[in-house]
Amino acid sequence: MENIFRSDLFAGKTVLVTGGGSGIGLAIARNFGTLGARVVIAARDQERLIEAGQSLREAGIDAIELAVNIRDNDSVADLIEQLELQGIGIDVLVNNAGGQFAAPALDLSANGFRSVVDLNLTGTFLMCQAFARHCMNRKLPGCIINIVLCQANGLPGMAHAGAAREGVVNLTRTLAWEWSNLGIRVNAVAPGTIKTEALDQYDPVALQEGIDKLLIKRMGLPEEVAQSVAYLASPAAGFITGTCLALDGGEHLTGASPQR
Ligand SMILES: CCCCCCCCCCC/C=C/C(=O)SCCNC(=O)CCNC(=O)[C@H](O)C(C)(C)COP(=O)(O)OP(=O)(O)OC[C@H]1O[C@@H](n2cnc3c(N)ncnc32)[C@H](O)[C@@H]1OP(=O)(O)O
Ligand SMILES: NC(=O)C1=CN([C@@H]2O[C@H](COP(=O)(O)OP(=O)(O)OC[C@H]3O[C@@H](n4cnc5c(N)ncnc54)[C@H](OP(=O)(O)O)[C@@H]3O)[C@@H](O)[C@H]2O)C=CC1
Questions:
Q1: Domain tally for the chain?
Q2: Is there a smaller number of Cβ atoms within 10 Å at the N or the C end of the chain?
């Protein structure tokens, strides 16, 4: 896909992408790297992360990989501490790590519901808070982009994920208020169905039914998410905070939810 941005747009900036070792997160990291940024990719699976980091370096990108479990506050604190010890300052945080499993609400155990909220909502909050403190220590502004999930029509079959992601959208607005005086812009991107390997866990027939209902009848591409994120992190979006950009082929209008 053609990149519309200037190749040195993020020169001198460092971008931290959670879940940056795969799928959308890796595409976001690659895009920032191509635009001149140093990128830090962080996730749990070290093997996959190192492979992803190598692929970025082979493309001439300054990439570092670090371990994090965003559900664990100590692990999040450790990530930021390691960066600070190495003298690495983060300018842009992309909270991309997340996920869920499909199950009807009636079948969800309390622990199953909690695990998805813990990952997507609490994990995102912990990363945002650690980043804001890091910005305060540096006395520099910052930018947060939270990747959520198109949930405008509810999310039948994934009640835990819909609730958690809607929580992140509201968190995005609240943190935009609270941290405006720190110079931190906070925005979200809500992708619809995006072509990544992670979709293999879903029923292909249900996926196709969803695509057929869209205004733009195809899956989105990770690179399309990456370019939207780059826009929101760029000076061109310097007047944008507290918003959520739907990147979903019109799903927020058509109500093409996973289940009827
Ligand atoms: C409804 C039909 C869908 C049709 C298809 C349309 C979909 C289109 C749009 C999709 C758009 C979204 C795409 C994506 O988000 S891509 C996703 C990227 N990756 C993932 O989603 C994987 C993420 N999953 C996880 O990280 C983990 O599974 C999770 C965090 C969710 C849970 O991890 P945890 O380590 O906490 O899990 P535990 O094993 O400790 O279990 C905790 C409790 O959760 C219950 N559980 C876990 N998995 C399942 C499952 N697959 N089904 C049911 N229940 C599950 C588990 O039993 C535990 O509960 P109990 O203690 O009560 O047993
Ligand atoms: N593909 C799609 O259609 C859509 C995806 N999304 C969202 O976009 C994001 C990326 O999805 P996609 O690339 O498709 O899927 P992936 O499964 O490839 O990405 C999820 C990433 O999150 C990381 N992750 C999961 N749990 C944790 C954790 N506790 N701590 C740190 N990292 C974690 C995973 O790495 P590891 O396991 O190594 O920790 C993985 O890199 C997710 O939040 C997803 O829900 C939203 C809408 C649509």
A1: 1
A2: C
